[in-house]
Amino acid sequence: MIKAILFDLDQTLIDFIKLKKNASRSAALAMVSAGLNFDKKIAGDELFKFYLEDGIEGNTAFSRFIKKHNGTVDDKMLALGLNAYLCAKKKYLKTYPGVPKVLRGINKKGIKLCVISDAPRVKVYQRLDLIGILNLFDIVVGFEDTGELKPSSLPFNKALSLLDVNPSDALMVGDCPERDILGAAKVGIKTCWARYGALDKTLDSGADFVINDIKDVLKCIED
Ligand SMILES: [Mg+2]
């Protein structure tokens, strides 16, 4: 019987790539308005590429972007870009449709909820708070909890021990087959691939369940 569900955050509960793309576009437009010599139409995509190189949590993307296209880092450009980015991030930071309702439904069944993310814990708390679902979770496991990234067994074992459940009584839901599904399966946790959030939807995830909508996670715990 499933007693706890572990959710990955980005691309599972939040469409983080969409958010980053939109925020990058706003930031790039603000920088162009501040004098950066770049084609407005493609500036957002160009800035987003720096994020992909940097790691999606990286914080040098803006300065490298400005340096490349302006020669030197202009602080005014950087400031306006950062402000536009922060405004856009707030606007576009949203759950996938139906997430809060599904989580409340799981809560009502007495099943514990956990977020297990490779992101720093503070960032995970910030995102959960901004989208209004923080209080639905019993625990959060972020990068600092173990110092290891998924698919290491450590974050999964940490979550199980904090939740006080056996691996076979837990379900991991995530978009990334290599990190979320493989990592959880290795320690004996049941797995559910959030195909809707995956960049490549044609993959063979190897998961016990595959869902195309968050609400279908409820079917996985009925089975
Ligand atoms: Mg993810």
Task: Give the topology.
Layout: E1 4-7, H1 16-33, H2 40-54, H3 61-70, H4 75-92, H5 99-108, E2 112-116, H6 121-130, E3 139-141, H7 143-146, H8 153-163, E4 170-174, H9 177-186, E5 190-194, E6 209-211, H10 217-222
Parallel strand pairs: 1-2, 1-4, 2-3, 4-5, 5-6
Helix pairs in contact: 1-2, 1-4, 2-3
Bound molecules: magnesium ion.
What do these coordinates show?
Helices cover 50% and strands 11% of the residues. The protein has 223 residues and is of the alpha/beta class. A six-stranded parallel sheet has the order 3-2-1-4-5-6, with helices on both faces. The protein folds into two domains: 4-15 and 95-222, Rossmann fold (3-Layer(aba) Sandwich); 17-92, Orthogonal Bundle (DNA polymerase, domain 1). α1 (16-33) packs across α2, α1 (16-33) packs antiparallel against α4 (75-92) and α2 packs across α3 (61-70). The model has no long low-confidence stretch (mean pLDDT 94). Bound molecules: magnesium ion. Residues 8, 10-12, 174-176 line the site of magnesium ion.
